[in-house]
Amino acid sequence: MTHRPTIDTVAVIGTGVIGRSWALLFARAGCAAVLHDRDPAQASRARAWVADSLVDEVESGSLTSADAAASLGRVSIAGSLGSAVKRAGYVQESAPEYLEIKRELYAALDEQAAPETILGSSTSTFDMSRISAGLAGAHRCVVAHPVNPPHQLPAVEVLGGGATDPAVVTRTAAFMASIGQVPVVLDRFVPGFVLNRLQFALVREAIHLVESGVASVEAVDAVVRDGLGLRWALMGPFGVADTNADGGIRQYYTGHEQLVMDLMNDLGPTPSIDARLIEQLGEGVDAMTAMASRAEMRRWRDRMIRKLRALKAGDPAPLTTPEHAPSFTERA
Ligand SMILES: NC(=O)c1ccc[n+]([C@@H]2O[C@H](COP(=O)([O-])OP(=O)(O)OC[C@H]3O[C@@H](n4cnc5c(N)ncnc54)[C@H](O)[C@@H]3O)[C@@H](O)[C@H]2O)c1
User: Fold this and answer.
1) Cα(200)–Cα(178) distance, rounded to whole angstroms?
2) Which residue has a Cα nearest atom 41 of ligand 1?
3) 129 CA to middle of ligand 1, Å?
4) Ligand 1 atom 2 nearest Cα
5) pTM for this structure?
6) 240 alpha carbon to ligand 1 midpoint, in Å?
7) How far apart, in whole angstroms, are the C-alpha atoms of residue 210 and residue 282?
8) pLDDT tens, 242-281?
9) Ligand 1 center–CA 101 separation, angstroms
10) What residues does ligand 1 touch, defined as CB less than 6 Å away?
């Protein structure tokens, strides 16, 4: 259930693929979202993208036109970083994934945002300890790593750096829960966090299977799309194992330990991602999606994710309340 946001005003710094999606999510949840991009034309494009996406959501029946209009009314653009963060209780930084860009931006944010404002980063790979090193406000800096696109996919990995105040991690997780996201708090930094480690473990083997001539791009995608992925929308690898044997996960892994380990040891090595490989994958994908444009595919993806989430909400998984997804109602 979505609660009233625990933070009213959010600054979205960097409004590319991820920033614009955060902007839509924050505004739809009831926050004022102030956008700022180094390129002012990009911030305008991002707001126009939010407007178009809201129209799609109205057309597919997941939002009323009044709610869409109110959401768009909450999205504004600020010409400077200082004016963007002036009233923000939370900042979501979504600038490009280069450590120097993040470090410079964080230095400016720490200087210009009010002392109690949380400085969250969408970084996919960096340790917050490195981004915020040496800053007076390192205690209020935190990673809030989304899954693309965050306005459709609720999981968000939340973790601090060495100097982050644990209360900032808790408040960030509470804020994410209050806008309908599923915060997953990590106990410590590891490159790629959980999401990209799992994702690229699978991608490595997917590429290996294509490169070594076992299966086409389309065949590999079909096994995930119409097999593994349908289950994964409902449960993770451990939940799947638990339902794969009548005696649950213990039985599933007992008796076949060696088979499973032999298979793991047989998985492919890290591929050389070079121009030849990229072209091979590109041709495979072109053949698979020749009937639709990328924009149509994305709209279809987003529409289907909304339907899946509505289905899941109507018949929720019989799980104990996960510790990482608390339902906070108090306001920060
Ligand atoms: N794309 C993904 O799938 C994905 C998923 C999760 C997290 N992320 C993370 O989100 C962040 C943004 O990724 P993206 O894919 O949206 O990148 P992007 O290139 O689409 O957008 C980055 C935006 O930041 C702007 N920018 C650059 N320097 C800036 C500055 N100093 N101040 C303000 N704006 C600035 C650029 O003009 C651009 O509009 C990265 O840290 C990335 O790792 C990306």
Assistant:
1) 30
2) 123
3) 19
4) 148
5) 0.91
6) 34
7) 12
8) 999 999 999 999 998 999 999 999 999 999 999 999 999 9
9) 10
10) 13-19, 37-39, 42, 94-97, 101, 105, 122-124, 145-146, 148
